[in-house]
Every structure is written in C-alpha cells, then in structure tokens.
From TrEMBL:
This is DNA-binding CsgD family transcriptional regulator. SUPFAM superfamilies: C-terminal effector domain of the bipartite response regulators (SSF46894). It comes from Nonomuraea jabiensis. GO terms for molecular function: DNA binding. GO terms for biological process: regulation of DNA-templated transcription. Keywords: DNA-binding, Transcription, Transcription regulation. It holds the Pfam family GerE. The lineage of its organism: Bacteria, Bacillati, Actinomycetota, Actinomycetes, Streptosporangiales. Residues 172-242 form the HTH luxR-type domain. SMART domains: HTH_LUXR (SM00421).
Amino acid sequence: MRGRVDESVTLARLAHQLEEVVGELRGIPVDVERVEDNELVRDQIAQAVRTAGELRAMHPVGSTERGREEQKSRLHVLDTLRRGMTMRTIVHASVLDDPRKAARIRELHAAGDLHRVIDEPIQQLLVFDRTVAFVRITPVPNAPGALVIRQQSLITTLIDLFERTWARAREITEPAHRLTQREREVLALIAEGRSNSAVARALSITEAAVGKHVASVFTKLELPATADDNRRVLAVLAYLRGAAG
C-alpha cells in the first residue's frame, strides 16, 4: 500500500511539472509549418530565393532533374548568383560518382555557388538568410513535403549545424574528389599498404579490375608515369591530403 501511495505522489508531482512546462510553452510562438505538397514547397522556396541574400544548402544526393527541367534549374541558379546571392552548398561525396552531376556541381562552384564535399551522411537542408529554413519531413532523399521553419532559435541551430558540417567538409576543387566511390575504396586500401591482389580480395573483385581502378586513379589525379616518381605513393599522398582536408 505504501508503495502505491509513493507512486501516486510521484505521478502527481510529474503531472504538475508537465502542466507548468506546457503553461510556459503556450506563451512561446513556435513557427514551424508542415507542408506536404511539393508544389507549395517549391513556391515558398522560389519566394525565398527572390528576397534572400544568402543561401546555405546541404544535399545528400544532388539534383534529380533531367533534360529541360535541369537546364532551367541551372540557368535559374546562375541568374541568382549574378543578382548577388551568396551561396554555399555541401554535397555527399557519392554525388560525384555521377559524371553529369559532378560536371554541374563544378560549373556552379566556378560561378560562385561554393561547394564542399563530405563523406558522412547528411540531410537535405536549405537556410535562406536567418529568416526561413526548409527541412525534409522524412530523412529520405527527395521525399515529398518539407518543414518550413521560421522560428529564430531553430534557424540558429540549423545554421550552427551547417557551419560545423562545412568546416569538416573538403574543397570540391581537390583532384581526389574526381574519384568514384570504388576508386576511393581501392585507394584507401592502397594507403594501408596493400598490394593489388590484397585489394582484390578485400573488395571481392578481380585483380584486373583493381588494375583498371588504379590506372583511372592515376589519370584523374594527373599522375603521369615517370622514372623518378612512385605513382602509388603520390596517389596515396593525394588521398591523405583530401581525407585530412
């Protein structure tokens, strides 16, 4: 019986504390809108683009647009840059495995939309100035809908997340970012001192396939065959510089 009384007292105290917390929250406006229609999301993003002076973005998979839609989007971004918007974008390293996406990213980077690359998982995020942010409702690339956030404390937190991720990310202009995911895996194993045959066993591929990947790495890192230099060592050094950046 005593145990039940103590439990009732504890629950009563907890309920009272929750009431106090809820009472405090009632006076705080939480400006977060759930928008599940992609057309409405695009309209709100377009409105933010017209008025904002700065954009911070994170993209886990890059653009999924094709053909005329992709060309229209590309021209829109370039026009936005010409109008003076400051843009910084973080993309996942796997995006560069697609030559078309990689070429678009490098073009936008050269035009002023500064890009960095990161290997760790990231979620889709857009933050315009310090006024509005867009986050996917579900953490799945290109999932429908978004949370539209105007709450200043939340925007500050998202900006802090972006800046810390930006600081860890690597420059898009480094030659090592031209490598595919498989080429990076091969080079990482070579950096551990493994031979081509050992790399082949580790990745469950043929030694001939490893040789092709290594040759591609040399080409992309602009390491010609010379009598004086060990290209495997130079490739590893380039890889380590990229990993440290």
